[in-house]
Amino acid sequence: MTDVDVVTDWVATASALRGTLEEQAAGSEQARTATDEAVAALRRSGLFTLLIPRELGGPEVDLATFTDTLAALSYADGSLGWTVLANATNTAFAAAFLGDEAVADMFGSGPIEVAAQLSARGTIVSAGDGWQLSGKYSFGSGSGHAAWIGGGAIELVDGQPAMQPNGFPRIRGCYVPRDQVQFTDGWHVMGLEGTGSYDYHITDRLVPDAYTFPLLGPPRRGGPVYRLRVPIIGTAGHAGWALGAARRALDEALAASGRGFMRGLTPVGQMEGYLTELGELDAALRSARSYVLEVFAEAEAFIEHADAPSEELSARVQQAITQCTRVAVDVVRKSFEWSGVSAIRNGVLERAFRDIHVAAQHVTQTRASFANVTRVAIAE
Which CA distances in Å does 60 have to 63, 205, 308? Predict the structure, then answer.
């Protein structure tokens, strides 16, 4: 892999892979998971390691770098950018939150990729020095090549959920070797097809305690950024992904200025409406990026002197990510429209259109993100 100590510009590293990822895009989509060639290139680049703590030899990049690096990857191909987003964050969770025994086992021979669906779709029961885990999971992005697979599970005591003081059940994240997982596929979708986001079962597995962690608990290693906890780190990359996919669509629309036609013989590049709206879309996309990076900087500054994010901070981060995604959807849709008839023969633009609409259905990208910000403000 790339020596992370000598990489000074991860965005440039990602951008340098554009040709390779574009070449592999169609094959990944057909295979419904990243091709072997794409995975090998990403491994050599070191990009799967972006969020691994420095004490384990990783670069431990800040959120702005993560955002712009994912934007560069998703500019080349949405599925492969999403794959890095999923693997990098889940690998970071294993590296920062698991016990020493697990980390030595998983990372002792060098970097590996981890995939997981950490939503509480399983149950887990204390069993001596470990936990008995069962669950049926879906949307395991990046699981086509990951060595370790994880899942979220509700802790049960006497058959009932163990409750926290806030009234919510206790949830643990768990990781097991790939050969302990039954994959059931299920990834037949309209967009992000090349992400290998398979369904899988983990049935009655005894997981040593070191390979589990409280899902909302503090990290065991790494710098302050990991104190932002799983929910923020796990969703932060969605903004960078959306920015890259949308920027590519907008650039494809600009390239169509001389050959796209809107129900007539006039090239769209000569239409005042096209010139105006694409300028507006460019401004909206740049504004969305600026707001995301502003909020990420505030989050990192806050966590330097705190053990956990505040409710207000968590709400603001989610608001920024959701707003960024919504702007990106608008940019892609209008870029497709303004590309005229040329859009129907543009595989890159077509993939961006499908991918962004699937990404926008993610559970974190809902109107609740906006309601939560208002709710916190009213409570103050």
Answer: 9, 31, 18
Q: State which of 107, 139, 159 marks the end of a domain.
A: 107
Dist. CA 24–CA 30, nearest whole Å: 10
Whole-model pTM over 0.70: yes
What is the β-pairing status of strands 171-177 and 182-185? Answer: unpaired
The CA-based dihedral angle spanning residues 106, 216, 167, 364, taken in that order and rounded to the nearest 10 degrees: -100
| Amino acid found at 192 | L
Q: Which of these, 91, 83, 84, 89, lies nearest to 113 by C-alpha position? A: 91
Is the same domain home to 40 and 79?
yes
Tell me the two tokens of residue 365.
């990208």
- Residues 119 and 51: their CA atoms lie apart, in Å, by 20
Structure token pair of residue 123: 């149950």
Q: For residue 170, what are its two tokens?
A: 């206790």
The CATH number of whichever domain residue 128 belongs to comes to 2.40.110.10
Helices and strands (DSSP H and E) totals, the chain? 11, 8
What is the DSSP secondary structure assignment for residue 164, as one 8-state letter? Answer: P
Asked if residue 306 belongs to a domain, the reply is: yes
Nearest to 226 by CA among 54, 85, 364: 54
Confidence of residue 337 (pLDDT cuts 50, 70, 90): confident
Question: Could you read off the pLDDT of 279-316 as tens digits, one per residue?
Answer: 999 999 999 999 999 999 999 999 999 999 999 999 99
Residue 300 tokens, joined: 């990192």
